[in-house]
Amino acid sequence: MVDLSGVGHRSIVDRAKAIILTPKEEWPNILVEAKDQGDILKSYGLPLAAIGPVASFIGGQVFGYGAFGFSYRPGLVAALSTAVVTYILSIIGIYVMMLIVDFLAPKFSGVSNRNNAFKLVAYSYTASWLAGIFGLIPSLAFFGLLGLYSLYLLYTGATPLMKVPQDKAAGFTAVAVLCALVLAIVIAPITALVTGLFAAPAMMAASDPASGTVTIPGVGSIDVDKAEQFSKQMEDTANGKNPPVEAAKMQELLPTAIGSFQRIGIETMGMGQMGSTAEGTYASGDKTFKLRLADMSALGALAGLGAAMGVEQSREDENGYERTQTIDGQMQTESWDKGSNSGKFGRMVANRFMIEAEGSADNIDQLKAAVASVDPDDLTDLVN
């Protein structure tokens, strides 16, 4: 039975927390709420959709962007224009996706209901919108992939809101996202500033209801049971069971020297329940790189979801390469630029911590050695 107590009176924080941590229990509450599209957009969509553009704008102005040893800060006017255009198109995207969802539901034995379709789209976008906060620190932008959890939210909401039978929910979600992706490709020349508007949710395809998996071509498979496990992990953290490790404790794990590189600086940062970071700067001759340790806390569970999907991406040319892959159940990134002798190597530990080395070196092996200088067990021991 649906619990009607407090329905229609949830704060934006409570609603976001509920849809992320306990989506199966929250969708029925959303279904019976007497809210129209305008109410949902004003009280929920507009504030959350602004997180990514605003965070990226601030992060770009404060920290700038860097790769392969180079860095830059976009001009104020250009950065602001990009943020505004991105924000506007993200709102338009809600309505376009709503039309797609409403049109497809009857094709999968569901029902057409435009208001419910709007609810499904708006609330399932929660993970993607929240993941936009990583734009505050451009070096952590990779974790924007955690917004892929929105795929699971769309999947779990298809049955209660659009009446799509459970055994067809994955197929419905796959086609809906595929249609949105195709639409994005069609309008890309017109909206070049936000080519990836719908590309962030990866293209979802077939599923095996018996095994509880949803396959994403070119990326991997979502294990529904693991997705629920990660939700429980985040819920425990939100309830204070897994507080972030103090940055000062992680700082102690940064070595004073790595091969010929000597540590010349150190910096720590605490981000409340979101986690903490400790970063050391190392130099040898004209080569300098940073070794970063980050406790992603509750959000690390979403990184685990990415690993569960077997996320992979690769690009290589005569100038260098970039790779993202899953190794031993953990996400790992690697890139190298031959011209500047600089790059990045990072890996997740226990679906919670990140160890990453970035900067200039003689070769990628030196950055890998920097990451290897931190014992993963020492990091996980800090939790106990």
Write a brief structural summary.
By secondary structure, this protein is an alpha+beta fold. Helix content is 45%, strand content 22%. The protein folds into two domains: 12-217, no CATH class; 247-381, Protein Transport Mog1p, Chain A (3-Layer(aba) Sandwich).
**Which series of helices and strands comes N to C?**
HHHHEEHHHHHEEEHHEEEEHEEEEEHH
Protein structure class: alpha+beta
Helix count equals 14
Task: Give the integer mean of the pLDDT values.
Answer: 74
Please give the number of β-strands: 14
Strand order of the largest sheet: 6-7-8-9-14-13-12-11-10
Beta-strand proportion? 15-25%
Report how far the terminal alpha carbons are from each other: 39 Å
Helical residue percent band? 40-55%
Shape: elongated
Sheet having the most strands: 9 strands, antiparallel
Unreliable stretches, pLDDT < 50, 5 or more residues?
1-9, 66-71, 186-212, 214-221
Number of domains: 2
